[in-house]
Amino acid sequence: MKICLDAGHGGADNGTSGNSILEDAWALEFVGRLKHHLHLHGVETVETRTTDKQVALATRAAIAVNAGCDLFLSVHCNGVKSNTADGAEAFYAPVGSYKNNSLGVGRELIAACVEQGLDNRKVKPDNESQHPSLTVLRKTCQHMPAVLLEIGFVTNKHDSDLMKNKVWRDKLAAALALAIVT
Ligand SMILES: [Zn+2]
Q: Tens digits of per-residue pLDDT, 4-51?
């Protein structure tokens, strides 16, 4: 099994921020942990970025497709004006032959997040995200299951306290890796 891990944003694009968490840096660090845990299960990984740099969305998808990956997983976190919104949510493209697999993987990943103390905001079609569609999903979903996971809200105290906790991050990475391989 080969998995493409996509740490969202990077370089000049910091993504969202709050409670002293910058999304791009957080996602990159978390992808490193996820990679470690997937390797423990003998899963091969390909990363769209391993440093703090900007990578075009189409390039991220091309990396996964060209490597012949079995799953594309984009890691993000949420941030909004209100500090009450919280929880984990996932998006998938509701098109193509892998749409049910993507939904299934999304549900497993959300279940792992909920097990680690995040609220369940469910798996949704990507047109219910802040965009009409998500490029990284649309450009990978014809080739492999593809999921974009939003791990918690940096703007929420409960979520950001967890997200800043290294022990929690490692537990969540282990749980997500297990959800992926089983
Ligand atoms: Zn993001």
A: 999 999 999 999 999 999 999 999 999 999 999 999 999 999 999 999
Instruction: Convert 134-145 to b/e letters by CB count within 10 Å (16 or more is b).
Output: bebbbbbbebbb
SS3 153: strand
Per-residue model confidence as pLDDT tens digits over 97-114: 999 999 999 999 999 999
Residue 124 exposed, middle or buried by CB count within 10 Å (0-12, 13-18, 19+): middle
Between the CA of 97 and the centroid of ligand 1 the distance, in Å, is: 26
Q: Are 28 and 74 in contact (CB under 8 A)?
A: no
Give the distance (Å) from ligand 1 centre to CA of residue 61.
Answer: 15
Q: Where are the beta strands (DSSP E) in the chain?
A: 2-7, 17-18, 21-22, 44-47, 71-78, 88-92, 120-125, 146-153
In the reported structure, the alpha carbon of residue 77 is separated from the centroid of ligand 1 by a whole-number distance in angstroms of 6
Domains, the chain, in order of start with CATH, read 2-181 (3.40.630.40)
Say if CB 76 and CB 150 are below 8 A apart: yes
pLDDT tens per residue, range 117-148: 999 999 999 999 988 999 999 999 999 999 99
Predicted TM-score (pTM) of this structure = 0.98
